Amino acid sequence: MRKKELTEKQKQLVELRKVSETFPTREINLEKAIEEAETEEEKKVVEEEVEKYEADKAENEAAIAETETEIAGIEAEIAEIERSAPVGTPAEQPKNTEEKRGNIMPMNTRRFFGMTPETRDAFLAREDVRDFIEAIREIKTRGITNGSLSVPEVMLELLRDNMEQYSKLTKYVTLKPIGGTARENIMGAAPEGVWMEAEGELNELDMSLNQVEVDGYMVGGIIWIHNNLLKDSDLALGSEIMDQLGKAIGKGIDRALLYGTGTKMPVGIVTRLAQTAAPSNWPTFAPAWTDLHTTNVKKLNINGTTGAAFYASLIEALGVAAPNYSDGKAFWVMNRKTHINLMTKALAFDAAAALIAGVNNQMPIIGGSIEEIELVGDNEIIGGFGSVYILAEREGSALEKSEHARFAQNQTGFKGYARYDGMPVFGEAFVMVSFDNTDAATTSTFETDYANTELGALAVTSVAGTASGDTLVTVAGAEASGTTLGYKVLGKAAAVKSGDPSTGYTAFTTPDDITAATGKIITVVEFDAAGRAIKVGTCSVVAKA
């Protein structure tokens, strides 16, 4: 009963917060109205609206505070009940009810996000979690109507708490939950105290406060769940969905934290360091933009050295990252090959003539955890003091059902996504080093957003070809390089969507003779390097008699 009440209160809180998001817009509109009001009658109307706005806002804030207090109380009661519940004895546990699937670990022995069995069972017994899993299990047939399933907040909280299982970098940055577009306050350098006589007057200290504006951009994609799992236990299904969702989000976040372009995604550390001019959307109240592309992006020629000679130069370069404004904890990102290279260069013999490696998961001398992420280039190191990177997490993650199942693979698709934004507030806290005398890669290729990209147009013409039954097809408007062309000849134009694969198309180069009957429709598609459709054009075939 208390769990049901908790669910209702949580829903109520979400609605109250949605209402609170409308107040900034109302305030802006009222400010404009005040400026534009000229007559006494107009001013009176505006004053009444201001009073109503203030009353609504105060009422909303009070309701949110009251609801949050009630939720905290209910959660405390539930936690106390769960703590005092007797732990089941072995005799009370089912006898080996697991399904054996080859050498896979039995399902009832798997850990569910680090929970004890009792906590796990209580989690899965929650009404909101149970309803969510049952709604997914009901998806058994093709032709499912599109719709959205809201992931219960308690599942999202669990995913957030375990995000470092999937994202290697979120544990180093400052994560800020937000309800929408928000301005986050960032303290500047702490002022130094002034010495004085014991009875002297205290001096006022200057304290700088900066703001950055953050929004919420989506990261995610299709998650394919095997249909057998839809019939499996709540534990199996819940684990699989959350695991796949976590992996999708985690990989996207890590790439964005390093290389995010700032366009519909966070600004990455490397992107900030490589900037040669202040971007047009640099926040007005953010710290002053500084050019770091030469001071904090280093190219060293030390890969041929080892030991002290190598590390003296490397540590000096990494030391450019300034710890000001941070919590003083550094991290360093590289791929596994680079990590092993660092370990090899640190090999030495100790006093007992035993071979040892001076680098494990900490950077020698200056400290800081080493994280392996394969998208970083060979012999490149990215890092610094992550606490000055603000990663805003917006509310409202969801899991959406696919329209059609993968019948051949016996799978059903779900679109999982979450919303994030962020930026390194103080770029001086980070550095990128390439130590093999090559320029460090300052960009990374993100997965193309085909679903939200319109197909380009190709101009296709057909004239009589060289031989009887042939047509000479010419295509204009294609990219100069890096793409391929393919065609289909049908009774009507082929249906093509952005991102469609090249399967089923015949490759050709333009201009070229192909065999086709007059009056048929030829559809020519341009595919990118990944073999996905980016442009399309059609025309009616004219063949030589």
UniProtKB/TrEMBL annotation:
Coiled coil: 30-84
Location of this chain's protein in the cell: Virion
Keywords, comma-separated and alphabetical: Coiled coil
Recorded superkingdom: Bacteria
Keyword Nucleotide-binding: no
Any Pfam family matching the protein: Phage_capsid
Principal cellular location given in the protein's record: virion
Location of the Phage capsid-like C-terminal domain: 149-434
UniProt name for this protein: Phage capsid family protein
